[in-house]
Amino acid sequence: xxxxxxxxxxxxxxxxxxxxxxxxxxxxxxxxxxxxxxxxxxxxxxxxxxxxxxxxxxxxxxxxxxxxxxxxxxxxxxxxxxxxxxxxxxxxxxxxxxxxxxxxxxxxxxxxxxxxxxxxxxxxxxxxxxxxxxxxxxxxxxxxxxxxxxxxxxxxxxxxxxxxxxxxxxxxxxxxxxxxxxxxxxxxxxxxxxxxxxxxxxxxxxxxxxxxxxxxxxxxxxxxxxxxxxxxxxxxxxxxxxxxxxxxxxxxxxxxxxxxxxxxxxxxxxxxxxxxxxxxxxxxxxxxxxxxxxxxxxxxxxxxxxxxxxxxxxxxxxxxxxxxxxxxxxxxxxxxxxxxxxxxxxxxxxxxxxxxxxxxxxxxxxxxxxxxxxxxxxxxxxxxxxxxxxxxxxxxxxxxxxxxxxxxxxxxxxxxxxxxxxxxxxxxxxxxxxxxxxxxxxxxxxxxxxxxxxxxxxxxxxxxxxxxxxxxxxxxxxxxxxxxxxxxxxxxxxxxxxxxxxxxxxxxxxxxxxxxxxxxxxxxxxxxxxxxxxxxxxxxxxxxxx
Length: 546
Prior knowledge:
alpha/beta, seven-stranded mixed β-sheet
């Protein structure tokens, strides 16, 4: 559909899960995309690392898409850009820090030389895209240049929060003040489209200044020991804090993880982290007395190829021993608990001390708790609340909180719902396609396509290959079945049953390829179920000319 004389909203990703944020605004015949993120795959997508929103709806309307505006540089907001920028073929807009990281992604993907227009927008400069007047508004978050968007349209003003929190000691950047937000509310806000991640948290998220004090105290407690801190690479404020803590505790700073090096370089090029102490390399760090080095490493979410995982296994140049300390200055992302626990158990097995934010104030969230949400509602006083960036339970709860706080209309929506914000009574009026895609090897494929469905079945039940030669003799191979010593007897029995099943076919069925194939498949599967209790996939191979 093409938006008429109206203001529409539609999320293709990020409304129903945390991550993969893709939001569309429609107005006077044009669509504007806000963010183009991805998420990391879980066990439901075996063999896959990245998951994207299905953009089919907007890809069918590219003539009406006028640009992609990126709120900040977290992967769940920019991670899909290098995979879809060429296909979308529209300009990208970002503030300087985000733009540098995006340009790096485009260069790595071989999309350079001006093929994609990437416009760097200085802070607070208003720019016009078709019927949308857009201005970035800095808000505190766990990355440099976290921004809300103030979007003016002929039908009213939208305040799109992006990811945000309130922080009186943000360490990096200067967030928009409560007085400035109140002035925006005084001018009128039609719709607040708002982050829902921490809506169940009854307390404010806390300040980065508190984390500085907590880390300083915690590192100071472990004199004479190597201390490693793992945190999100993108958390520029936390990196600033760790650089200061290293200096304040008399330790040299060592960084382990390419993404950390990249963020530090981009941060310094964007005017941040200039007070970071000079980094020492791995060899120099390992030669220092144990109490004179502070190591910052990636991998706090349990990523198997990240630095912390290899350090835990003893296969990295950075080495820890019993009595050394690892501080987890990050939260557990839902779904990563098992992977994080695996690394923590490996560290604990080696006698390494583990400290998390449950034991010490060494991390705060980058998303707003209930008090912060209520404060924003009071400053902006929107007519409509549209919760986004959360699972269903988060968005439903924020809708309830908004109504309780006096917002006249709160619209619960999920990926694919078309919402009319104006004119007339706001609400949902239709649905569009909003599925998932996966990066499977080098191919972007449907998340629930035939290949992925088959892979799940193979992972669950294994595979049996049954073949017939020209003389009707059968051979059976089982892969992934829970058989060991019994395997030879299983394949012998399966081959015999397959031959009997084919011999039992009568008349024309013996010459019917489909009938022979089905007889072989069923016979092999029945034997596998008898021996293993599993119902594996069965692949049938018949001789040529059958």
